[in-house]
Amino acid sequence: MATRFASRLALIAFATATLRGLLEGGDFRGTLWAALAALAVFYGLGLVLGDLARRLAEESARTELARTTDRRGESTKLRTAPEPT
């Protein structure tokens, strides 16, 4: 998941830097270097943020599963009749 997010973010950054260079009338070499630098920086940033998002989603799923499991256990205890003594 992190690599997919990083790839998409890097491509968006590359396209943005390229379009900015074209619109500003920059030279080809300078525009290309700026776009490649943006690609590298945002790929790294995307890896970090994508991994963070994955970890947060997994933790949220674990917490929700534990909460649901606890509720089922409590509702099962309430439904069972007390044992005769």
Question: Would you kindly provide a written description of the structure presented here, covering whatever features stand out?
Answer:
It is a single chain. It contains two helices and no strands. It is mainly α and 85 residues long. The chain has helices spanning 2-24, 28-79. The radius of gyration is 25 Å and the shape is rod-shaped. The model has no long low-confidence stretch (mean pLDDT 88). Helices cover 88% and strands 0% of the residues.
Total strands: the figure is 0
Overall geometric form: rod-shaped
The number of helices is 2
Tell me the β content: under 5%
First-to-last CA distance = 56 Å
Largest β-sheet summary = none
Query: Uncertain segments of ≥5 residues (pLDDT<50)?
Result: none
What integer is the average pLDDT? 88
Radius of gyration based on Cα positions: 25 Å
Could you estimate the helical fraction of the residues in percent? Answer: over 70%
Provide the descriptors you would attach to this structure in a database record.
85 residues, rod-shaped, mainly alpha, single chain, 2 helices
Concise account of the structure shown:
By secondary structure, the chain is an all-alpha fold. It is 88% helix and 0% strand. α1 packs antiparallel against α2 (28-79).
Question: Could you outline the blueprint of secondary structure elements for this entry?
Answer:
Blueprint: H1 2-24, H2 28-79
Helix pairs in contact: 1-2
